[in-house]
Design goal:
Structural class of chain B: alpha/beta
GO cellular component, one term (chain A): ATP-binding cassette (ABC) transporter complex
Number of domains of chain B: 2
Number of helices of chain A: 13
Largest interface: A-B, 21 and 28 residues
Number of strands of chain B: 20
CATH topology of chain A: MetI-like fold
Radius of gyration of chain B: 26 Å
Strand content of chain A: under 5%
Number of domains of chain A: 1
CATH topology of the largest domain in chain B: Rossmann fold
GO molecular function (chain A): amine transmembrane transporter activity; carnitine transmembrane transporter activity
CATH superfamily of chain A: MetI-like
Largest sheet of chain B: 6 strands, mixed
CATH class of chain A: Mainly Alpha
Number of strands of chain A: 0
Structural class of chain A: mainly alpha
CATH architecture of chain A: Orthogonal Bundle
Order of helices and strands of chain A: HHHHHHHHHHHHH
CATH superfamily of the largest domain in chain B: P-loop containing nucleotide triphosphate hydrolases
Main location (chain A): membrane
CATH architecture of the largest domain in chain B: 3-Layer(aba) Sandwich
Protein name (chain A): Glycine betaine transport system permease protein opuAB
Shape of chain A: globular
Distance between the termini of chain A: 68 Å
CATH class of the largest domain in chain B: Alpha Beta
Distance between the termini of chain B: 35 Å
InterPro entries (chain A): ABC_transptr_choline_permease, MetI-like, MetI-like_sf
Strand order of the largest sheet of chain B: 6-7-8-3-9-10
Radius of gyration of chain A: 22 Å
Shape of chain B: globular
Oligomer: heterodimer
C-alpha cells in the first residue's frame, strides 16, 4: 500500500461506529416507544387484513371491480379487474394478495399524506428544497438492505417495519412530483390569482393545487407501483403477502411457485395502476 | 377632474442591491450601466404620471421600455423600490407601495382589476367559473356571484358559452372572458397589459371597438399598455411614451403625433397614418394669423384665391373665390354638391383631417374655413397646412 493510502486508512472516519452508536442510543432509550408504535401498527394492519379476509373472496373481488367502475366510469376496466383478481384467487394466492394490497395501499396513502405537503412546502421555499434534495436522493438510492437492519432492530419483525421501509423508499417520489407540479404552474395564472386579491391559502387551493393535480396524481400512481416493487424486501423483515411466497420460492428454488406469485404481483400492479390513473386535463 | 392613479417619482429595480441601484439612478445612469455595476435590472426610473378618472391612459414603448413594469406597480405585482403609487379608494387614496397586505387585497378585489396579455384563465374552470374568480376570492355569496357573472357574460356576448372550458374558445373569445372577469369585480380601475397583442389583427380591431363601446357606457379608468401606436392613438385619451425605463413624453394623441419630443418618439410615429388622429383644429391657421384686407375681408389662403368678409359678430357676410362671389357649404354636405359651382367648404374644429382633405379635393384645392359652434369664423386650412401636417414638416 502506498504511504498516502496508508495514512488515510489509519485515520479512517468511523461512520459505521457512529451509526451503530446512534441506533444503540435509540434502542437503549426509546425501545419501548418504537416497539409500542410497531405493535400498534401491526395490530391495525393485521386487523384490516383479517377484516377483508372475512368477506368471501368473490364478494371482495366484485366490490373492488365496482370501485374500479366508480373511479373510472368504465365497464371494460371493471370487467378486467374482476377477471384479473379471479385469476389470483384461482392460483390460491388470495390471502397473500390481500396482505400485500393492504400494505401497498397503506404505504402509498401514507407517503402521499407526508409527501404532498412536503412537496408544496419545498415548491414555495426553494432554499428548503435545496436541503431536501440530498435527503431525497439518499432515501431513493441507499440500498434497501442497508436500512432493513436498523429498522429491524428498532421495530422488530412484522408488517409495521415492512410498511416503514416501503414508505421511506416511496416518499421521495411523491415529494418530487408534487414539487414539480406546483413549481410548473404557469406564472400567468398565479399572477391572475394574485391580481384578483387571492390570499396565500386561496392561491394554493384555487390555483396551484388544481393546476398541479395531474402531476400529483401521477405521483400517486408511481407511489403505488414503487410500493409494489418493495413487497419482496418488506417480506424479508416479516411483512407477509406475496413477497413471502417469492422469497420462499427463491430459497427452495421453486420455479413454479415463484412464477405464480410473480404473476399475481403483476396483475395487482396493472389493476391498481388502471384504477388510480387520472386523465390529464381534468374533467374533460 | 378626480385623480384615479398618481405615480410619483416611481423607481423599480429588480435585484438585490436596491440602495446601490437607486444611487446610480439618481446620478442619471442608464439601464445598461446599472446592470453592469450592480447586476440589477432597472424596471423604471423617476416615473411620474397622473391618470384621471374615466380616461384611457396608454403606456407605450418598445418591449423592455418599462411600460408593463410601471403598470404592474398599480396592484403591486411589481414591488416599487422608491416613490409613491397613489390609488383612489372610495373617498380617500391609498399608497400601494406602503399599504399592508389586507388593504392591498381589498384594493385588488374591489378597486383595481387586471386583464392579461396571455389571458391568464384557469384551464380547469368553465367560462363562468373563470369570470367569477375575483368575486369568489372576495367572498361574494354564490347567488349574487352567479347573477353578476351572467350580467358580464351577456355584456361581452358570451352567455352561450358559460359552461364551456376556456381552452375550447378561440383567442378572441378567451380575452373577452378575461375582460368579463375584470368587469365582474366592478372595480373602477382597470389595468390592461397588452390585452390584444396575442390576437390576430382583425380580432384585435374588433375587440378595440368593443372596448371603446363598453367604456362609453362603463366609464372606467383604464391604464392600457401597448407597443402598437395605432392602437394607442385609437383608444387612448392620453399617451405616455417610455424608453429604457423612463418616460420620454406624455400628452394627448395629437400632441405626440404633431410634436414628438425626441427621435425615439419620432421613430415611433414614423409609420403612423396622421389622418387617423389629426383633426382640423390641429392643422388650421388662426384667423388672427391670416392676411386681412380692407372692409373686413380676410384672405383664407396664402395664394389669395379665396376671401371672406366677416361682420362685427364674427359671422361670414360674403365670400369670394377667384374674384367671383361664392357660396359657403358645410363639409358634411360635400358629397351632394355639384362640382362646377364656386363654393368654399367650412368645417368644425373637431372634423377629421380626412374629411377636410376630401372637401379640398372636391373644390379644386380651395381652402377650408373653420367655424365654431356659433358659426363664427375661427380660422382656415390651406393646402400647405395639410401637406405640412401630413409630412410632419
Amino acid at each position: 500500500m502506498d504511504p498516502i493510502s496508508k495514512f488515510l486508512v489509519s485515520y479512517r472516519i468511523p461512520i459505521g461506529a457512529w451509526g451503530k452508536a446512534l441506533f444503540g442510543f435509540l434502542t437503549d432509550n426509546f425501545n419501548t416507544v418504537f416497539r409500542a408504535f410497531s405493535n400498534g401498527l401491526n395490530f391495525l394492519l393485521d386487523g384490516i387484513v383479517d377484516g377483508l379476509l372475512m368477506l368471501p373472496p368473490v364478494l371482495l373481488i366484485a366490490l373492488i371491480a365496482l370501485l374500479a367502475y366508480f373511479l373510472q366510469r368504465s365497464k371494460g376496466l371493471a370487467l378486467g379487474v374482476f377477471i384479473g383478481l379471479l385469476f389470483i384467487l384461482n392460483q390460491n394466492l388470495w390471502k397473500q394478495t390481500v396482505e400485500t394490497l393492504v400494505l401497498v395501499v397503506a404505504a402509498a396513502a401514507a407517503s402521499m399524506a407526508i409527501g404532498v405537503p412536503l412537496g408544496i412546502w419545498a415548491a414555495h421555499k426553494p432554499k428548503i428544497y435545496r436541503f431536501m434534495l440530498p435527503v431525497l436522493d439518499l432515501m431513493q438510492t441507499l440500498p434497501t438492505f442497508v436500512y432493513l437492519i436498523p429498522v429491524l432492530t428498532l421495530f422488530g419483525l412484522g408488517n409495521a417495519p415492512g410498511l416503514i421501509v416501503t414508505i421511506i423508499f416511496v416518499i421521495p417520489t411523491s415529494v418530487r412530483l408534487t414539487h414539480l407540479g406546483v413549481t410548473s404552474v404557469p406564472k400567468a395564472i398565479v399572477e391572475a390569482g394574485e391580481a384578483f386579491g387571492a390570499t396565500k391559502r386561496q392561491l394554493l387551493w384555487k390555483v396551484e393545487l388544481p393546476s398541479a393535480l395531474p402531476t400529483i396524481m401521477a405521483g400517486l400512481t408511481q407511489s403505488i407501483m414503487l410500493s409494489l416493487s418493495m413487497v419482496v424486501f418488506a417480506a424479508l423483515i416479516g411483512a407477509g403477502g406475496l413477497g413471502t411466497e417469492i422469497n420462499r420460492a427463491l430459497g427452495s428454488r421453486r420455479i413454479d411457485l415463484g412464477l405464480e406469485a410473480g404473476l399475481a404481483i403483476v396483475v395487482l400492479a396493472i389493476v391498481l395502476d388502471r384504477m388510480t390513473r387520472i386523465g390529464v386535463g381534468g374533467k374533460k | 377632474m378626480t385623480v384615479a392613479v398618481d405615480f410619483r417619482n416611481v423607481d423599480i429595480v429588480f435585484g438585490a442591491d436596491q440602495a446601490g441601484s437607486l444611487a446610480l439612478i439618481d446620478s442619471g445612469a442608464t439601464r445598461a450601466e446599472i446592470l453592469e455595476k450592480t447586476g440589477n435590472v432597472l424596471g423604471c426610473a423617476g416615473a411620474s404620471l397622473t391618470v384621471h378618472e374615466g380616461e384611457i391612459s396608454v403606456l407605450m414603448g418598445l418591449s423592455g421600455s418599462g411600460k408593463s413594469t410601471l403598470l404592474r406597480a398599480v396592484n403591486r405585482l411589481n414591488v416599487v423600490s422608491r416613490g409613491q403609487v397613489l390609488v383612489k379608494d372610495g373617498d380617500g387614496t391609498v399608497d400601494v407601495v406602503t399599504c399592508d397586505e389586507a388593504t392591498l387585497r381589498r384594493l385588488r378585489q374591489k378597486q383595481v382589476a387586471m386583464v392579461f396579455q396571455q389571458f391568464g384563465l384557469l384551464p380547469w374552470r368553465t367560462v363562468e367559473e373563470n369570470v367569477g374568480l375575483g368575486l369568489e376570492l372576495a367572498g361574494v355569496p354564490e347567488a349574487e356571484r352567479k347573477e353578476r357573472v351572467h350580467r358580464q357574460l351577456k355584456l361581452v356576448n358570451l352567455d352561450q358559452w358559460a359552461k364551456k372550458y376556456a381552452h375550447e374558445l378561440s383567442g378572441g373569445m378567451q380575452q373577452r372572458v378575461g375582460l368579463a372577469r375584470a368587469f365582474a369585480t366592478e372595480a373602477p380601475i382597470l389595468l390592461m397589459d397588452e390585452p390584444f397583442s396575442a390576437l390576430d389583427p382583425l380580432i384585435r380591431t374588433k375587440l378595440q371597438d368593443e372596448l371603446l363601446q363598453l367604456q362609453a357606457e362603463l366609464k372606467k379608468t383604464i391604464i392600457f399598455v401597448s407597443h402598437d401606436l395605432e392602437e394607442a392613438l385609437k383608444i387612448g385619451s392620453h399617451i405616455t411614451i417610455m424608453e429604457g425605463g423612463r418616460i420620454v413624453q406624455t400628452g394627448a394623441p395629437e400632441d405626440i403625433v404633431l410634436r414628438p419630443a425626441n427621435d425615439y418618439v419620432r421613430d415611433f410615429i414614423a409609420n403612423v397614418n396622421p389622418l387617423s388622429v389629426l383633426t382640423a383644429w390641429n392643422v388650421m391657421r388662426d384667423r388672427r394669423d391670416l392676411e386681412h384686407g380692407k372692409d373686413g375681408w380676410v384672405w383664407l389662403d396664402r395664394r389669395k384665391t379665396t376671401r371672406f368678409k366677416i361682420d362685427e359678430h364674427g359671422l361670414v357676410a360674403a365670400a369670394e373665390r377667384d374674384g367671383k362671389p361664392a357660396v359657403w357649404v358645410s363639409c358634411a354636405d360635400v358629397e351632394g354638391q355639384p362640382e362646377e359651382l364656386a363654393q368654399v367648404f367650412w368645417a368644425n374644429p373637431g372634423t377629421s383631417l380626412k374629411t377636410v382633405m376630401l372637401a379640398m379635393h372636391r373644390s379644386q384645392t380651395a381652402p377650408v374655413a373653420l367655424f365654431d359652434d356659433q358659426s363664427r369664423f375661427v380660422g382656415a386650412i390651406g393646402i400647405r397646412d395639410v401637406l405640412s401636417a401630413v409630412l410632419r414638416r
